[in-house]
Design brief:
The chain is of the alpha/beta class. 34% of the residues lie in helices and 19% in strands. It is globular, with a radius of gyration of 17 Å.
Length: 241
């Protein structure tokens, strides 16, 4: 691990701990659905804090997927971001479909996720009006990244930035607003047309960063200290540029 990465990891996870996450279950009456959320926030004043909405990767409807990325969400909160991690999967939900074209058979799952994101953003406006709602980032890993990208297609005006951790199916929005950044794993390539060409990336400011030593499944709690530090460093770079 590079010394700078090691120092960042220590600072953000040890010396500057965020408060323990607040776990809530918010009810979306429009869709008759409970939406569990974990809120990670810095200690102190909330006024003017930027927002990060995080969506987990597919967990086969097991509860608790929304806290599988605590290392990352705690670090973002310690760096001054108000982070909400959404539990998208409930025990009674249909399982994700793996047979057939992903953009067809998985679209209902992504649409439900995008609806969850939209509801959570509306709840944040109601419950936390002091946050800076004009600086909202939607982020997610794998299937949660696909949901986040879909949301950017549906509501580009609501999002300042999209950051994905190795989403593989939903094509990145070719636009400069919202800005998109994506971290790519060492072992699982994206489907055709998901990632921009070099020319598109240059034209729209889309950032694509490959992690040669980080497999797809090592971006959640499976990540080792070096992988965690690298992901945190890059996420903060994306957020702050």
């Amino acid at each position: 691990m590079r010394p700078a990465l090691l120092l960042l990891f220590i600072l953000l996870t040890k010396l500057l701990p965020a408060q323990a996450p607040e776990l809530h279950s918010w009810y979306d009456s429009l869709h008759s659905r409970e939406i569990p959320v974990a809120i990670y926030q810095p200690k102190g004043e909330l006024k003017g804090l930027p927002i990060v909405i995080f969506s987990h990767g597919y967990g086969a409807n097991e509860p608790g997927s929304y806290v599988d990325y605590a290392y990352l969400n705690e670090a973002l909160a310690a760096a001054g971001y108000f982070v909400v991690s959404i539990q998208h999967e409930l025990p009674g939900d249909d399982l994700l479909i793996f047979d057939g074209p992903a953009r067809v058979v998985r679209m209902p799952n992504w649409e439900r996720g995008a609806a969850n994101i939209h509801f959570v953003l509306q709840e944040l406006e109601r419950l936390y009006p002091q946050l800076d709602h004009g600086r909202t980032t939607v982020a997610g890993h794998s299937n949660g990244g696909d949901m986040s990208v879909l949301y950017s297609h549906q509501h580009p005006e609501r999002v300042q930035q999209v950051i994905t951790l190795d989403h593989r199916r939903m094509p990145i929005l070719r636009a400069s607003q919202p800005r998109t950044s994506t971290l790519r794993s060492s072992d699982q390539p994206a489907d055709a047309e998901v990632l921009p060409t070099d020319a598109e990336a240059a034209a729209f400011g889309i950032r694509v960063v490959f992690l040669p030593d980080t497999p797809h499944n090592n971006m959640d709690s499976n990540a080792d200290p070096r992988q965690r530090a690298e992901i945190i460093e890059l996420m903060l770079r994306f957020l702050q540029e």
